[in-house]
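User: Hi! Is it possible to get a structure for several chains at once, not just one? Here's what I have:
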Amino acid sequence: MHDEQAQSRTTSRKDVATAALAGVATEPGVAKPDPILVADTVVRRFGGLTAVDVDHFEVQRGAITALIGPNGAGKTTFFNLLTGFDQPDSGEWTFEGKPVQKVAAHRVARRGMVRTFQLTKALSRLTVLENMRLGATGQRGENFAAALLRPLWRSQEAAITAQADDLLARFKLDTKRGDFAGSLSGGQRKLLEMARALMTNPTMVMLDEPMAGVNPALTQSLLGHVKDLREQGMTVLFVEHDMDMVRDISDWVVVMAEGRIIAEGPPESVMTNPAVIDAYLGGHHDQPLVSAPAVDKEERG
Amino acid sequence: MDFDSVLRNGLQAAVGVDAIVFALAAIGLNVHFGYAGLLNFGQAAFVLVGAYGIGIGVVYLGLPLGVALLLGLAGSIVLALLLGIPTLRLRADYLAIVTIAAAEILRLVARANSFRDVSGGSDGLSGFAGSYFALNPFPPGDYGFGYLTFDERGFYNIVVGWSLVAISVLAVFLWMRSPWGRVLKAIREDEDAVRSLGKNVFSYKMQALIIGGVIGCLAGFVYSLSRSSVQPDNYGTAFTFFAYTVLLLGGAARVFGPVLGAMIFWLVISLTDTLLRQGVNNDIIPSYILNGTQVGQVRFMLVGLALMLLMIYRPQGIFGDRRELMLDAR
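Assistant: Yes, the chains can be modeled jointly so their relative placement is included. Here is the combined structure:
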């Protein structure tokens, strides 16, 4: 019964996102009907290497957007720029209509754009519950003077704990509540990090390779949680380099290669886009090696 | 061998002014290093600022003691800001380099001949604790019980010192059970994660640096007032390293760790010192092995040995939790 309700809701939210994106052209940097995040001419150079060079990029509100590309495509760097963890050489972008370039990372998070990390950052020597409580924003007890007087923050702490227990139950971590986060398995840490991010009540969740290093059994559960975020009205942007993961859950796929966006579209169409296949497999993958001396030479070099 | 005096000296050292000074310095360091993960290698600088704040305030500026105390506190806050603003945005190692250098610079400036009329050069300053001892409520006589008997001045120092320790311990306890303390501990684990959750990491690290520095400054107050003098060379790098020893001995990130650590540290130093000295004086230790002037150095070797054994068999310190330490290995 409960599952059925969830199922019907799932189809509705997914349908909304799919319908909204149905008429959008499948070309790089295309405009979306209701963008929550809009970025323009974002460039980041590391010495002579241009890691990110994105002309225009939009993320549709309420949809799951995947940012994919081969290793070294600049996905994570772009991600770091958008969330304020790295500064671009040029470029500007807005979140919910307000500019967020040159805004400190913690302020970006407070505006409702919260991220996770490719290498999971569970706070090892804090318990799972403390990890969760940390995520809540606007805590009175986080002021160093108010912290000394427990009555000032006791009731808020109780509310935060209730919210944390709720999320822990949803992510099936409630039995680990009192354990050090450092004692969790890799997959459980990914779950904890996602749940902790949700404690900030975000409007947009940015997941950097949420499936990396997670065993296949847990992958399905993680995918379910990502879909759940959309059901609760959140926008999801996630980085992944495994195309199969992307096919199942994303409403829209953006492909990066060598720092640029080379293709966009619904998962089915992107997977068959020749530019994408070239980016992943190399331009001469379908030609016999003897007739492609350039590749041969590169490999020798 | 006079084991009676060995025990007496040992116990008196364990609750004496030196133990109080290092307990306070290490409580401050615990806020820095134990909870916030700030690698402050210049805790001696905060103690020096406290001690010289009183000394210069009273002797050179002619201020009343109360105002000189405020001068010391303000000085330690300014020092924390000066150290923190350029370094807290950078990786942890930069703070370590800057703090150890700043502590030495402060000590060398304090003992510089050019500033002799302000800070007294290498002789330091003295004779500024008159109004402190004038407040002594204990009439002349002996106080305490058994081995722990002190004259009225010694007892006064100890009461004032341990009160400051108690207040500091209580404040650290209240802070570290609060959400504020949680943010600090989270920063120690991974500051990017904390940043991604919307916390201003720089501000929290600065607050921790100031609070730990102010507690270190209290150590300087006790140090200088109890002796009624400040000497620049008491605040060398060795001071900071002893404070770290005390902290790790008791267990970092434990509220009572620095207090117990300081008591044990000074107990062990006193025991080894009196035992060796008596051994030399009574010809139990022949003079071709060790003479009286070498005892001072040898006792620190023995303390070093004891610390190595501690790190091998109980690396988490006395109060620490070994399981917590194992998490670092991942």
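The first strand of chain A starts at residue 35 and ends at 46. Residues 15 and 66 of chain A are 17 Å apart (CA to CA).

User: Great, thank you!
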